[in-house]
Records
---
Amino acid sequence: VSDITTNGLARGRGRGHDDVEMAITITVAEVKALLKFASEDAARENLCGIAVSGQRLAATNGHVVAIRGEDPRASWSGALIVPTALWLQAIAGLKAGDQLEVDGDANLVTITGGPAPVQCRSPKRTFPPLDQVIPESSRKAANSIGVGGHYLALLPVIDKATRTKSGFWDMRCGGELDPILLVAQGRETTWTVIIMPVRLLRRRCKPVRDRERGRGEHSSAPDLAVEPTDARARPPAAVGHEVETGVVAPVAVRTE
């Protein structure tokens, strides 16, 4: 299995950002979300926590990464790794919406807003050079293809229910706006999930929010979610056609 730490180190290190000061406001819910991506392997101390670099935070277990902040491809050299235990100490007794303030530099970070201030001095640990493994966009003006995170969150539900053999899903996609096919071998049979992607419109301005769902504007691939109520089924929406937010949904198939 590809490991971010080894892949990145093999390509070299980026520029240092040791002198960048930080002043970050983050919610308890965001901290908990980042910690889901951090390693629990005590032997990999440089991955057991959340790294802070400038106005960015990141967590990885070596195989999956979550980055909060702009410009993820900027160098992570000199990032200060705050161990998981200190984050748990900082958020103890707080609610999901409560906010923490993270201040400092690459030598000392102070987290306030919790029961008591928590400080972390720079340990002798090196965070993986994420800037070396994040691919550059080949077309800066191109539209991005999006997949609803709430749909991906349904995959563990099937994992738990059917005890998939490896916990991994084989992902296949033919091309832009083609259905995304995810296949896993369950305990007794194969499971297939199909998710219709959306084209995210790249705009500098704040996206228009849907009043009910709170999502930005997008255009959609043909929809598999709605079963026609009329015997004369309408043809699927054309690629790139503007559709109402929230109608794209996954389809799960249990294959004999």
---
Amino acid sequence: SVDHEIASQIGKKRKIKTVCIQWGGVIYNKPKSSFRKSTFSNLLVWGKNYEIMFKKYNPKVKINIIGAPHLRNIKNKSKKILFLIPQKSPQFEKLELIKYVRFIKKLSEKLPNKILIRTHPQDNFGKNLLNKEIITNVDIDDARTVSLHSTLSRSILMITMGSSSIFEAGINGVVPILYAKSDRKIWNQNICDLKNKYGLSLFENKNIENVEKTIFFILKNKKILNKISKKIKYDFKKEIKYKDNESIKRLRNFIKNNYN
């Protein structure tokens, strides 16, 4: 982000080494602007895919793979269907957001007490939409007070319109479903693979009603759910190679070897 880069520039001017720890995934085939032309001394990334991608856009920065130290292992304690509410932005049309929330409402009526909604930590638009539609029989996690780990630990499926949390879910065995109404070829390869690699489409870019069909098909076929979950966990290791204690250990070793 801009404030991170400002801090890096100040550090550089004062001859202080600076380190950026990757704080989010990239679902597209190019990194966000905040991950380009960085001036950090080191960039600590989640996995091999990011090492390759970030090196292309940050040729002067030393890049090390340490995994995601913030991401804890989870054991699914319940079987909720998680919906992430996106941030209002040019990426998400207002009408699509309204359609998405109304879709959640319709599904909550068919699956009472099975839906879990997580709001966006930096935007109240989706939260206000939820209040306006008066959705009942659901659990709602406020991202500003409830950790992503806590939310994922209660979920078996996660539906999103474009959150990079898709990788954090998948690496922990929560099956992701992406609804993104776009024909643009802008996606990370693992996102593209959601369309046809797992025996059914986990990436819908036309009709949100098809997402409902996918959800019910998976819920009725536990063996298929488990199979997809295991395969995605394996495939997403290209995105997040280490997590929890293994990643924390690598972060500590990096600090010990480079800054002590």
---
Amino acid sequence: GTPYYFRVMAAVRNGNIERGLLFFHQALEEDELTRGPVTSGPAWSFVTLDYDNRYQAALQIVQSRANWLEQRLNAYKASGRGSLSLADFRGRVLNKAGLSEATFSFTHAVFRSEILLSLPVEFRSSSFASQIELDTLFSFSRIAEVWLKTQQPPANRHERQLGGQLIRFFKSQGWGLSEKDLSAIGSADFELTLTALLDGQQGPLLQAYLSAEGDLILIYILRNAAGHAPTSSNVVHTRYSDLLERMLFGLFVIGERLFP
């Protein structure tokens, strides 16, 4: 897989993350043909944002994205939601056996998010830009669903869906939101609900929108909105950074509480 590795570096440095990760995926598949399942080495260190491995040519790229993610983890810890460190997140979630495809998707979404946030606001002011932003958030919501199903194997048909998985998780945490409540939130006005969740407004269905419970509800409504049809949203455009942070908080909550 070595030739693919250096093609990855060239692609990523030129801003083509899709091309780069496709090469990395191929590099790992080539390595697995000769060495079996790969859980170490430069290619895997790149995908899992492991900057502790100093023997990788792409160390500077990995360090930059790991720092970006660690800033979000620090904000997560400062919010009082948990104490997950980047090392724990990598070891318990990103390195978990059987989840390499989800790990690739997560890293891809991290790169895309960083690129979007680095663009001047005026370049993200169109309705199409909000669709791209929503698509990136959708990627994180699909990853959340995979992680939940991995750690909570569906016990019935309802738990094959994200809503059923969230209700099961809420119950395991002693949170009071019911299936009926979640359904009502999902069918409410999309823009108003996003704003309420972000601003911590009180409502008839939730006691505290700014809690970890609210982070997961946000994942649920964004998953539904982006999964059914191309959607542009003024709230997504104007508050993409806030939405992204809350989405990541939700993923961190799942990682910390479901992955031992």
---
Amino acid sequence: IENRGKGVIEASEGARGTGILHAIGDSDGDIIKGRLINNGRIEGRNDDVANSQQGDGIRLSSGIEPDEIIVGLGLRANLENRRQGEIIAADDGIEIDGKITLRGNINNRGEIVAENDGIIIAGQVTGNLNTTGIITAGDEGIEIRSDGQIGKINIGGRVSGGIGEAIEIDGITGDINNRGILFSADEDGISVDGSGTVDGNINNFGEIQSPTDVGIRIDGTLTGAINNTGLIAGLDTSIDADTADASITVSNRGTLS
């Protein structure tokens, strides 16, 4: 799927729907090869039913029931929102469902605006999440759910959370590298929750800010260190690791406030 230039993909006016719903399959080993590129506008509309996910911009899903055990469902491709691309969502901007494996990267160089989460990963992404564009969310900017896993998270643009964190980790990720701006209006800049693991370092060369809470909160596991040459700022404190699974090393050559 390639949405070019002035192309528009949207759920019908007055309808509840996802901009692009990619149903992968319902049998062991179902894998689709291809590409999903947006350089136009994709819009999901009218998510007025709680937890319906009907207003997602892009959603990778499966055709199986939640209690079925199916392995190997996946899409072998990069998911790309290019420089002129816009993803507008009444629910989540991009969602990878729990039984899906994306064998590639998620690359955002455009803009994602979502009333709920900007990018939510409940499945597996074998590559990295790379964003040099803008993500603006009503809840979490980026959320890795408890069963979700991704390679690394690389930020070069701006990620803004609303009532949620800029980045929330409940699952597993590798390094988090920030060269842009991570901002949350009402929660932490980065939160590694009790069930979450960062298998690597949190490296900040940019800004991580929370005017109401904590810059970086570690309640789960960080196997590496927090390395800061930028700014980490919070109302309560810059870094809170009081309830982390183990002691945390912080190397600071920037500003903690």
